[in-house]
Design goal:
- It is a single chain.
- With 448 residues, the protein is an alpha/beta fold.
- The chain folds into two domains: 159 residues, Alpha-Beta Complex (Aspartate Aminotransferase, domain 1); 271 residues, Type I PLP-dependent aspartate aminotransferase-like (Major domain) (Aspartate Aminotransferase, domain 2).
- The protein contains 13 helices and 15 strands.
- The protein has a seven-stranded mixed β-sheet, sandwiched between helices.
- α6 links the parallel β5 and β6.
């Protein structure tokens, strides 16, 4: 393995990794995957319980997706959608999405990922109000949220200093944050349901305080993702929809992580029967076999912005990605992936409660579908977190990898909590869940 060791060393000295200190890597080099398993260059196998940033929703080795991409590459490997040009996958993908997205969302913009989708959503919202000669430009989001790492999405993300380069790259102006729907660590110091869902009510207070004539949109994930896989109380989203409508503020649902069956529905907003004005997508839309993102919005917004020229990126609406996305959407429907994810998610939560709820360092377990989180605390009664100097999160990451689990763990000094997060491929079986839990339990039990 000398050659591999040399490459890893070269990597440290020359390559920059996302969300990793420059000059470091962890020495794990993935080379292939099948189902819910990934294998590294040394032959070690891992249960991919985070599906690589909650991306590979249909698991590894989906030959139908590979075939769809290959067929399109042979026909037309690239075609721009700039200047009004179209291609068949571009049109077919839009028509299919119109069948799947919540009612009223039937206009679309395709790009290459989640950050681009959310940047486009902000541009859409501001353009929409500008065309009506209204100076509404502010975007409200949640503390603990993540919406991307570009200029505007970095400003909307409330996850903390990790995306601001130690203050040297301050976020774009026009973005503000309000407390999230995080009942276990409520910023108002209240308890559900006696709280009256103050986190939702506060949105109205913030809009009124800022001036409704200045607020363009509110954006949030239906389930908090990178901040810990935290589901909302059931009243939250209906209240938010009502507040946005009352103040004439656009509601943007960030379904980049939650969309395409992750929560047991095609889109998470379906759990509460709400209709956003704009919805963003990526990750699961193509099972991340190709970089694809999309923005869905209402026909009313589409009519209002007619005549505007929207700038984009070279790979917006890439034909190979959209051909693959069409096949992915076919598989989601044909194989009843939403129902499978709902069932597997219920089983996962049940098993987590059975095996981990009584462990002293486990504070809370919650989730929706195959988005689950388990809080790690130093004191169960006070909810006190471990001192960062103990590097509990770092050690946990090392131990899980050593034992064949690829898990995402919130923490690392800039998130608001330490949580073990579960977002496996949606095809995971009960047997695979059981095997993973059997590996994880002794690792969690030794945390103190």
């Amino acid at each position: 393995m000398a050659a591999l060791e040399e490459m890893i060393l070269w990597d440290k000295e020359h390559l920059v990794h996302t969300d990793c200190p420059v000059g470091q890597n962890i020495g794990v080099v993935f080379v292939k995957g099948k189902g819910v398993m990934v294998e590294d260059a040394e032959g070690n196998e891992y249960f991919d319980l985070c599906s690589q940033l909650d991306c590979v929703s249909l698991g590894y080795g989906q030959t139908e997706l590979v075939a769809a991409a290959s067929e399109q590459m042979e026909k037309l490997p690239y075609s721009t959608t700039f200047f009004g040009f179209s291609h068949v996958p571009f049109m077919k993908c839009g028509m299919k999405l119109a069948e799947l997205t919540p009612e009223g969302l039937d206009a679309f913009f395709f790009n290459s990922g989640g950050s681009e989708s959310n940047e486009t959503a902000f541009k859409l919202a501001r353009t929409y109000w500008a065309r009506q000669c209204l100076g509404k430009y502010k975007i409200i989001s949640l503390y603990g949220s993540y919406h991307g790492s570009a200029s505007c999405t970095g400003g909307a993300s409330g996850i903390g200093k990790g995306h601001m380069l130690a203050g040297l790259n301050p976020p774009a102006p026009g973005f503000l944050h309000i407390p999230p729907y995080y009942c276990y660590r409520c910023m108002f110091g209240k308890k559900y349901p006696e709280c009256g869902i103050q986190c939702a009510q506060y949105l109205g207070d913030a809009i009124a305080n800022e001036g409704a004539d200045t607020v363009a949109a509110f954006i949030a994930e239906p389930v908090i993702g990178a901040g810990g896989m935290i589901p909302p109380p059931p009243e939250y989203w209906p209240m938010v929809r009502e507040i946005c409508s009352a103040y004439n503020v656009l509601l943007i649902a960030d379904e980049v992580k939650t969309g395409f069956c992750r929560t047991g529905k095609m889109f998470a907003t379906e759990h509460w029967g709400i209709e956003p004005d704009i919805m963003t997508m990526a990750k699961g839309i193509s099972s991340s076999y190709f970089p694809v993102g999309a923005v869905a919005f209402t026909q009313e917004i589409h009519e209002t912005i007619k005549g505007e020229e929207f700038t984009g990126f070279t790979y917006d609406g890439h034909p190979v990605g959209l051909a693959l996305t069409l096949k992915a959407m076919e598989i989601y429907e044909r194989d009843h992936i939403a129902e499978r994810a709902a069932s597997a998610g219920e089983y996962l939560l049940k098993r987590l409660e059975e095996e981990f709820a009584s462990i002293p360092c486990v504070g809370e377990i919650s989730g929706l579908g195959l988005m689950a989180g388990m809080e790690i605390v130093a004191d169960k009664d006070t909810k006190e977190m471990f001192d960062p100097s103990m590097k509990v999160v770092d050690k946990l990451r090392e131990d899980t990898l050593k034992n064949g689990l690829n898990l995402r763990i919130a923490g690392l000094g800039y998130q608001m909590t330490d949580r073990v997060m579960f977002g496996p491929p949606l095809i995971i079986t009960q047997q695979e869940i059981d095997r993973s839990i059997a590996i994880l339990k002794p690792i969690i039990e030794k945390i103190h």
